[in-house]
Each structure stands twice: as C-alpha cells, then as structure tokens.
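INPUT
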Amino acid sequence: MSELDSLYREVILDHYKNPRGHGVIDGADAEAEGQNPLCGDEVSIAVSFEGDTIADVKFQGRGCAISQAATSMLMDMVRGRSAEEVASMSRDELLDEVGIPLTPVRLKCALLGLGVLKLALHKGRGTPLPEEWAGLEELELS
Amino acid sequence: MAVQAQPRLDAEKLRADFPIFEHPIHGKPLAYLDSAASAQKPRQVLDAMTSFYETSYANIHRGVYDLAERSTEAYEAARETVRAFVNAGSAREIVFARNVTAAINAVAYGWGLDNLGPGDLVLATELEHHSNFVPWQYIAGRTGAEFGVVPVDSEGELQFDELDALAERGRPKVLACTAVSNSLGTITALPRLVDWAHDQGAIAVVDAAQAAPHTTVDVQAIGAEFVAFTGHKVCGPTGIGALWGRSELLEAMSPFELGGHMIRKVTVEKTTWNEIPHKFEAGTAPIAEAVGLAAALDYVGEVGFPAIERHEHELTEYALGRLAEIPGLRLYGPPADRRVGIVSFNLEDIHPHDVAQIVDAEGVAVRAGHHCNQPLMAKLGVNATTRASFYLYTLPEEIDRLVDGLHRARKLFS
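OUTPUT
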C-alpha cells in the first residue's frame, strides 16, 4: 500500500491528469521526439528561444503516468533557463523533483522527456548530447 | 469440442510442484498471470537438470568415454521426446534451437536467401509475434522479394478475403503464420492458411510458441513445411526450443550458423555439412537444457492436454466475464471458445504500465506493453495492452485478485 502510494503520489497524478506545458508551439525553433520501446511511451517536445534562453517549451505524448508527469514537471523547470544550462542538467535534478522511488524500468519512463528535450536543444542550439544519444535523429531509450 | 467430457486437472495440487509459489511478492502470494511470456518451472524439470549435471554431464558427440556417451544419449533421448511431442515422422526432423526467434532466423536465412528473389512474395499475418515477422521482412528486403501482410481487422480477426488479392502482388513463396496469437490468444484457422499457401506454391512456416503449452501440436496434422516452438513456455528451461522441418527441405537447406559440430569435413578449400539435424546445431549444444525440456514435456504430457485445455477454457471464460464487469475496461480478441488462456485489455485510458505496476503491489504479475506485436497493436489502435495469461497452475482466485487490483487502479486514477 505505502509503496504504491509513494509511486503514484498526489503530485504525480496531478501532473499526469493536468499536464503543464502541454501542446504545440506554432513556428517552434526546434522539435524532437522519442519513444521508450519497452512500454511504448512517446514524447515530442517543441522549443522556442529568445537568444539562448528557452522562451517557451511544450510537449505532447502518450504513455504511462510516470513518463508524462515527469515531462510535465520538466516543462516548468526549464522555461526561462538557458539552452546550455538545461543541456547539462543532471538527471538527478529532474528525479529529485519527481521525488519517487523508481525501478530501472520506470527510471527510463521518468527520463524520456529529459532526453527528448536535450535532443531538441541539440537540434536548435547545437548543445552537446549525452554520449549514448549521439547521432540519433530520434531518441530511443532501450 | 465437448469440453465437459474432458478430464479435469487439480491446479492446487500441481502448484505444489512449482517452488516459485513458495515465495511471496510484496508480502502476498504470487499470482503469476504471465505464463504467455514464460511459464514457471516444476521441481521435476529443475531436478532433472541438476541430476543430469551431477551424474551424467560431459560434452556430447565425439567423446568415447562413458560420461560423454551417457550425455549424448540423454541429449538424443530428449530429441526423441520432442519428436513424440510434436508427432514428427523422424527425430532427424527435430532441430534444437535456442528459441522460436532463432528457429525462424535459421529458416529465413537458410531457406530464404537461396529461394527468394525479385517477383517473389513473402507474407506474414498481422498477428505474428516479431519473431515470425521481422526475419521475413528483412530477408525479403535482402533478396528483393516483396513483403506483405495478411491483415487483421480492428478486432484482430484475420481477413481471409484479402488473401487472393494479396497473391496478385507477386509469386507467393512463404506464408509465416502463428498457430495462436500471443497478444489475443486467438487460435488461428491454421488448416485454411496452410492450404492456401500450398495452393499458391508457397511454404508455410508456423510459429507454435503459444500453441505448444496449451494444446496438441501435431506437425503431420498441421501439414506445414516448418513449425517452431520454444521450451520455456512449456515449463522448460530458457535457451532451448525446437524447429521441425520436412526432412527433404532440411536436407536441401543451407545452414545458417556455421562452425563447430555442424560439419562433415573441413579442408582449407572447402567444408561440407553434417547430416540433419546436426547441420543446424552449430557449437556446443544446450545439453542440460535439452534434458530439462524433455522433463518439461513429460510433465505437461502427464497432466495431459485434454485436462489443460479444459482448465484454461474455464479460466478464460471466467476471466472474460469478470473483466467485462469492470466499467471502462476494453477487451480485445475472440470469445473463449476460440482462444487459449490469454486475455488482453485496456482499462480506461490508464497506461498498461501503470495498470501492471498497481496490480503488482497486490502480488499479481501481468505483462504490459506491445507484446512484440507492434503491427497488431497499430491495427487495434493502441500502443500497448495489459495481458493476463493462464496455465495449468492458475487458480480462479488469482483472476479475482487481478480484478480487485484493476478496481484499485480505477480508483487511483479517477
């Protein structure tokens, strides 16, 4: 009981049911998408910049509560920050915000959005990609 | 089928043979509803493998000492057990393969590279597990043959009316078809598919991975050219299954994996192949796994398919009824009389991963995902389902616990 309650805590379900930054950006500067082939989670992210600052960021997707809630939280975390800063953002920064215990399989769900966002920043501003994703047109966490 | 006349099995009693059920999950008894992914192992299988390692193990073939002779004998006796299990005419037609994926790759490469080319048509049903789909799609591409699918409708039913129109796209050479859908549990109309393939001059390659645990697989009755099944779904160990092929086809077919044991003579200039089935068993074989597989087939055979079919049919009817009571639950696939003990569903718009995680907290193990069936999922209009599957050790109360867990998931996500 307690294990489940901590995984599906109120804030996760709230972000899942009422995602922040959900939608598309007309004339976005950069877009990327990714899948988690294990469970079929899909996330696409659009970014618009003012200079090097992330002026707006929005996502669309379908998938489990963890993947969609974590991406929703991520949108709130990165708006107004520089592309470079977000490109080097650690996964722990997001995982601290998500704040739930995750098994290795669910970890991939939680980190899908961050990977897709970094890919969009790479496409839009040439920021470095984590080594394991270099050369990918689409992100696949497997 | 006169189900009521069939013998009954005692699942409670059989469970005592499976050590896994002695270990609670999250403090609750394990309700293992994922046997379509892999079945649990009875002590008889584990003991057979341990005893073999402890008393009779050595590498097989070519050894002249007593232990090697006994080990070889055990391995070849396992082949005979598999032959009898699938009613093959000869043990020469039984090739041990790592799993169905490996078996189909052996056929797709070994037969396909030599026999397919531009103008030929390779067909797979849309119900195929990726194991009998991806190798054919790939080898068709490699050889310049056309690749097509026998479609299903949005309910997952194969569209036989489309077959003749499909045949106009090329010379049909291969029909890859499953005996039972791994996602929906559908028992396919194999005789109709195989007959059609033969009318077209095509070979039929049957995936019996989901049929072999639940019902008699008689390769002579099926009448196809190749039939593959895997051991771990029939209570056997992982890493071993079997490919049955017609001897004349196996004899003419090129080997896929090359190296140890599969040769007759090697010189610097040329290598000739061993006789069948050894031509297709390169490298040191999974010897103890073969012994374990034979023990598993003996175990399942002793329970008997009439009793297994009846048990699963009752469970499936019960599950379909109980699941249909849940508001917002969408079931996929045919009625109970046309399926084995596999049910796939979605609960409202809750992602199957979340559903599976929530019921896991109750000790209920179900699978969530695309089940290596992405073309079928696309046709059903979903990217994943939750799947519960049953076997000879499944109890009705485990289905009740699943249903309780699903109510909990609804409440959590409401």
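end of record. Chain B has a mean pLDDT of 96.
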